[in-house]
Amino acid sequence: MSVQDTVKAIGGRTLSPWRTAFWFVLAVYLALVVAFAWNPTPLAQGLAAIGIVVACSHAVLFYGWKDALALLAICLIITFAMENLGVATGLPFGHYHFEVGSNLPHVGAIPIIVGPLWFGMGYFSWVLAGTLLGGAQARLNRNIELFALPIVAAFVMTQWDVVMDPPQSTISKAWIWHDGGAHFGVPLSNYLGWLLTSWLFYQAFALYLSRRRYLSAQSAEQGRSLRLVAILLYLASGLTHVTPFSSARAVR
Protein backbone atom coordinates (compact mmCIF):
# COMPACT_ATOMS: atom_id res chain seq x y z
CA MET A 1 0.00 0.00 0.00
CA SER A 2 1.39 3.43 -0.95
CA VAL A 3 1.67 6.35 1.43
CA GLN A 4 -1.19 8.09 -0.37
CA ASP A 5 -3.41 5.04 0.04
CA THR A 6 -2.51 4.87 3.72
CA VAL A 7 -3.41 8.51 4.24
CA LYS A 8 -6.73 7.99 2.48
CA ALA A 9 -7.44 4.88 4.52
CA ILE A 10 -7.14 6.77 7.80
CA GLY A 11 -9.07 9.72 6.51
CA GLY A 12 -6.07 11.99 6.13
CA ARG A 13 -5.58 12.24 9.92
CA THR A 14 -1.83 11.88 9.50
CA LEU A 15 -1.69 15.36 7.98
CA SER A 16 -3.99 17.06 10.50
CA PRO A 17 -1.26 18.12 12.98
CA TRP A 18 0.68 19.75 10.14
CA ARG A 19 -2.46 21.41 8.87
CA THR A 20 -3.26 22.69 12.36
CA ALA A 21 0.27 24.03 12.73
CA PHE A 22 0.05 25.75 9.35
CA TRP A 23 -3.18 27.57 10.20
CA PHE A 24 -1.79 28.56 13.61
CA VAL A 25 1.37 30.03 12.06
CA LEU A 26 -0.73 31.81 9.43
CA ALA A 27 -2.99 33.28 12.13
CA VAL A 28 0.02 34.59 14.06
CA TYR A 29 1.50 36.08 10.91
CA LEU A 30 -1.79 37.76 9.96
CA ALA A 31 -2.11 39.23 13.46
CA LEU A 32 1.42 40.66 13.22
CA VAL A 33 0.65 42.10 9.78
CA VAL A 34 -2.52 43.83 11.00
CA ALA A 35 -0.80 45.22 14.10
CA PHE A 36 2.62 46.24 12.81
CA ALA A 37 2.96 46.22 9.01
CA TRP A 38 1.57 49.74 8.55
CA ASN A 39 4.80 51.46 9.65
CA PRO A 40 8.03 50.83 7.65
CA THR A 41 10.07 49.53 10.59
CA PRO A 42 12.50 46.58 10.31
CA LEU A 43 9.71 44.32 11.65
CA ALA A 44 7.30 45.56 8.98
CA GLN A 45 9.94 45.10 6.30
CA GLY A 46 10.48 41.54 7.49
CA LEU A 47 6.75 40.87 7.40
CA ALA A 48 6.59 42.29 3.87
CA ALA A 49 9.46 40.05 2.79
CA ILE A 50 7.64 37.02 4.21
CA GLY A 51 4.49 38.09 2.37
CA ILE A 52 6.36 38.26 -0.94
CA VAL A 53 7.82 34.78 -0.36
CA VAL A 54 4.35 33.48 0.51
CA ALA A 55 2.92 35.03 -2.67
CA CYS A 56 5.63 33.41 -4.79
CA SER A 57 5.13 30.04 -3.09
CA HIS A 58 1.35 30.29 -3.41
CA ALA A 59 1.66 31.10 -7.12
CA VAL A 60 3.88 28.05 -7.64
CA LEU A 61 1.36 25.82 -5.85
CA PHE A 62 -1.55 27.35 -7.76
CA TYR A 63 -0.03 27.57 -11.25
CA GLY A 64 3.28 25.73 -11.26
CA TRP A 65 6.80 27.13 -11.63
CA LYS A 66 6.61 28.22 -15.26
CA ASP A 67 3.38 30.18 -15.01
CA ALA A 68 4.33 31.68 -11.63
CA LEU A 69 7.62 32.94 -13.08
CA ALA A 70 5.77 34.31 -16.09
CA LEU A 71 3.43 36.32 -13.85
CA LEU A 72 6.39 37.58 -11.79
CA ALA A 73 8.26 38.69 -14.92
CA ILE A 74 5.20 40.35 -16.45
CA CYS A 75 4.41 42.17 -13.22
CA LEU A 76 7.96 43.41 -12.61
CA ILE A 77 8.50 44.63 -16.17
CA ILE A 78 5.22 46.55 -16.34
CA THR A 79 5.24 47.99 -12.80
CA PHE A 80 8.84 49.19 -12.90
CA ALA A 81 8.18 50.77 -16.30
CA MET A 82 5.03 52.52 -15.07
CA GLU A 83 6.56 53.60 -11.74
CA ASN A 84 9.59 55.10 -13.51
CA LEU A 85 7.29 56.86 -15.95
CA GLY A 86 5.30 58.19 -13.00
CA VAL A 87 8.34 59.56 -11.16
CA ALA A 88 9.77 61.12 -14.32
CA THR A 89 6.62 62.69 -15.74
CA GLY A 90 3.86 62.58 -13.12
CA LEU A 91 1.82 60.31 -15.39
CA PRO A 92 -0.25 58.31 -14.72
CA PHE A 93 -0.06 58.48 -10.89
CA GLY A 94 0.95 62.05 -10.09
CA HIS A 95 4.19 63.67 -8.85
CA TYR A 96 5.84 61.71 -6.02
CA HIS A 97 9.03 60.12 -4.82
CA PHE A 98 9.77 57.11 -2.61
CA GLU A 99 11.30 57.36 0.85
CA VAL A 100 10.97 53.68 1.71
CA GLY A 101 13.82 51.53 0.44
CA SER A 102 15.91 54.56 -0.49
CA ASN A 103 19.07 52.75 0.67
CA LEU A 104 18.36 49.72 -1.53
CA PRO A 105 19.44 49.22 -5.16
CA HIS A 106 17.18 50.95 -7.66
CA VAL A 107 15.62 50.02 -10.98
CA GLY A 108 15.81 53.41 -12.64
CA ALA A 109 14.49 55.78 -9.98
CA ILE A 110 12.48 53.11 -8.14
CA PRO A 111 13.72 51.11 -5.11
CA ILE A 112 14.01 47.46 -6.08
CA ILE A 113 11.56 46.36 -3.38
CA VAL A 114 8.65 48.18 -5.06
CA GLY A 115 8.26 45.65 -7.89
CA PRO A 116 8.05 42.58 -5.61
CA LEU A 117 5.53 44.43 -3.42
CA TRP A 118 3.38 45.02 -6.50
CA PHE A 119 3.65 41.31 -7.26
CA GLY A 120 2.68 40.21 -3.75
CA MET A 121 -0.54 42.19 -3.49
CA GLY A 122 -1.17 41.93 -7.20
CA TYR A 123 -1.15 38.16 -7.04
CA PHE A 124 -3.47 37.95 -4.03
CA SER A 125 -5.84 40.43 -5.70
CA TRP A 126 -5.82 38.26 -8.83
CA VAL A 127 -6.78 35.15 -6.85
CA LEU A 128 -9.51 37.07 -5.00
CA ALA A 129 -10.93 38.38 -8.27
CA GLY A 130 -10.92 34.86 -9.72
CA THR A 131 -12.80 33.65 -6.66
CA LEU A 132 -15.39 36.42 -6.98
CA LEU A 133 -15.93 35.33 -10.58
CA GLY A 134 -16.35 31.67 -9.68
CA GLY A 135 -12.89 30.41 -10.62
CA ALA A 136 -12.61 32.40 -13.85
CA GLN A 137 -8.84 31.89 -14.05
CA ALA A 138 -9.51 28.30 -15.15
CA ARG A 139 -11.78 29.45 -18.01
CA LEU A 140 -9.60 32.00 -19.79
CA ASN A 141 -10.22 30.30 -23.12
CA ARG A 142 -13.61 32.06 -23.04
CA ASN A 143 -13.57 35.68 -24.17
CA ILE A 144 -15.73 37.01 -21.33
CA GLU A 145 -13.43 35.64 -18.61
CA LEU A 146 -10.32 36.56 -20.60
CA PHE A 147 -11.23 40.25 -20.37
CA ALA A 148 -13.53 40.37 -17.33
CA LEU A 149 -11.05 38.81 -14.89
CA PRO A 150 -8.25 41.38 -15.49
CA ILE A 151 -10.73 44.25 -15.11
CA VAL A 152 -12.18 42.92 -11.86
CA ALA A 153 -8.69 42.12 -10.54
CA ALA A 154 -7.55 45.67 -11.34
CA PHE A 155 -10.43 47.09 -9.29
CA VAL A 156 -9.67 44.69 -6.41
CA MET A 157 -6.04 45.80 -6.46
CA THR A 158 -6.95 49.49 -6.63
CA GLN A 159 -9.44 49.10 -3.78
CA TRP A 160 -6.53 47.94 -1.62
CA ASP A 161 -4.54 51.03 -2.61
CA VAL A 162 -7.47 53.29 -1.71
CA VAL A 163 -7.06 52.02 1.87
CA MET A 164 -3.25 51.79 1.80
CA ASP A 165 -2.07 54.97 0.11
CA PRO A 166 -3.31 57.71 2.49
CA PRO A 167 -1.69 56.40 5.71
CA GLN A 168 1.45 55.20 3.92
CA SER A 169 2.08 58.59 2.32
CA THR A 170 1.16 60.74 5.33
CA ILE A 171 1.57 58.87 8.63
CA SER A 172 4.26 56.40 7.57
CA LYS A 173 5.77 58.66 4.88
CA ALA A 174 6.83 55.67 2.78
CA TRP A 175 6.47 57.98 -0.23
CA ILE A 176 5.68 61.66 -0.61
CA TRP A 177 3.13 63.29 -2.92
CA HIS A 178 4.62 66.57 -4.09
CA ASP A 179 1.34 68.36 -4.74
CA GLY A 180 -0.95 66.61 -2.25
CA GLY A 181 -4.37 65.51 -3.36
CA ALA A 182 -8.10 65.38 -2.72
CA HIS A 183 -8.18 61.97 -1.00
CA PHE A 184 -6.40 62.48 2.34
CA GLY A 185 -3.46 64.00 0.53
CA VAL A 186 -3.45 61.53 -2.36
CA PRO A 187 -4.27 62.75 -5.89
CA LEU A 188 -7.18 61.00 -7.54
CA SER A 189 -5.01 60.42 -10.61
CA ASN A 190 -3.05 57.94 -8.50
CA TYR A 191 -5.98 55.53 -8.45
CA LEU A 192 -6.42 55.79 -12.20
CA GLY A 193 -2.73 54.94 -12.46
CA TRP A 194 -3.21 51.89 -10.26
CA LEU A 195 -6.16 50.75 -12.34
CA LEU A 196 -4.19 51.11 -15.55
CA THR A 197 -0.96 49.53 -14.28
CA SER A 198 -2.60 46.55 -12.64
CA TRP A 199 -4.92 46.00 -15.61
CA LEU A 200 -1.93 45.97 -17.97
CA PHE A 201 -0.12 43.14 -16.19
CA TYR A 202 -3.31 41.23 -15.41
CA GLN A 203 -4.41 41.36 -19.04
CA ALA A 204 -0.96 40.29 -20.23
CA PHE A 205 -1.00 37.35 -17.80
CA ALA A 206 -4.53 36.36 -18.82
CA LEU A 207 -3.51 36.31 -22.48
CA TYR A 208 -0.46 34.23 -21.57
CA LEU A 209 -2.58 31.70 -19.66
CA SER A 210 -5.20 31.50 -22.40
CA ARG A 211 -2.53 30.52 -24.93
CA ARG A 212 -1.27 27.81 -22.58
CA ARG A 213 -4.84 26.54 -22.10
CA TYR A 214 -4.33 26.41 -18.35
CA LEU A 215 -6.27 23.76 -16.49
CA SER A 216 -6.08 23.47 -12.72
CA ALA A 217 -4.75 20.14 -11.50
CA GLN A 218 -5.76 20.79 -7.91
CA SER A 219 -8.45 19.00 -6.02
CA ALA A 220 -11.49 21.04 -5.01
CA GLU A 221 -10.31 21.01 -1.38
CA GLN A 222 -6.81 22.17 -2.29
CA GLY A 223 -8.21 24.93 -4.46
CA ARG A 224 -10.50 26.18 -1.68
CA SER A 225 -7.67 26.18 0.85
CA LEU A 226 -5.32 28.09 -1.45
CA ARG A 227 -7.98 30.66 -2.25
CA LEU A 228 -8.80 31.10 1.45
CA VAL A 229 -5.14 31.73 2.27
CA ALA A 230 -4.90 34.37 -0.48
CA ILE A 231 -8.13 36.09 0.66
CA LEU A 232 -6.97 36.20 4.30
CA LEU A 233 -3.63 37.70 3.29
CA TYR A 234 -5.39 40.32 1.15
CA LEU A 235 -7.74 41.25 4.02
CA ALA A 236 -4.93 41.46 6.59
CA SER A 237 -2.88 43.66 4.27
CA GLY A 238 -5.84 46.01 4.05
CA LEU A 239 -6.66 46.00 7.75
CA THR A 240 -3.11 46.92 8.72
CA HIS A 241 -3.61 50.35 7.16
CA VAL A 242 -6.60 50.99 9.40
CA THR A 243 -4.44 50.34 12.49
CA PRO A 244 -2.66 53.74 12.64
CA PHE A 245 -5.99 55.58 12.58
CA SER A 246 -7.26 53.63 15.58
CA SER A 247 -4.06 53.33 17.58
CA ALA A 248 -2.65 55.85 20.05
CA ARG A 249 0.82 54.79 18.91
CA ALA A 250 0.37 56.35 15.46
CA VAL A 251 2.93 59.09 14.88
CA ARG A 252 3.52 61.65 12.20
Describe the structure.
By secondary structure, this protein is mostly helical. Helices cover 68% and strands 4% of the residues. It is built from nine helices and four strands; from the N terminus they run H-H-H-H-E-E-E-H-H-E-H-H-H. The strands form two sheets. It has a two-stranded antiparallel sheet. A two-stranded antiparallel ribbon has the order 2-3. Helix 3 (42-63) packs across helix 4 (65-89). The longest helix has 28 residues, at 143-170. It is globular and about 45 Å long. The termini are far apart. Mean pLDDT is 87; it is low at 1-14 and 248-252.
Quick take:
The chain is mainly α.
Fill in the keyword field for this structure.
252 residues, mainly alpha, two-stranded antiparallel sheet, 9 helices, 4 strands, globular, disordered C terminus
What's the arrangement of secondary structure elements?
Layout: H1 3-9, H2 16-36, H3 42-63, H4 65-89, E1 96-98, E2 106-107, E3 110-111, H5 114-132, H6 143-170, E4 175-177, H7 188-212, H8 220-239, H9 243-246
Antiparallel strand pairs: 1-4, 2-3
Number of strands: 4
Structural class: mainly alpha
Distance between the termini: 63 Å
Low-confidence stretches: 1-14, 248-252
The main sheet orders its strands as 1-4
Using the CA coordinates, give the radius of gyration: 19 Å
**Fraction of residues in helix:** 55-70%
* Mean pLDDT figure: 87
Strand content: under 5%
SSE run? HHHHEEEHHEHHH
* Main sheet attributes: strand count, strand direction, barrel closure: 2 strands, antiparallel
Global morphology: globular
Number of helices: 9
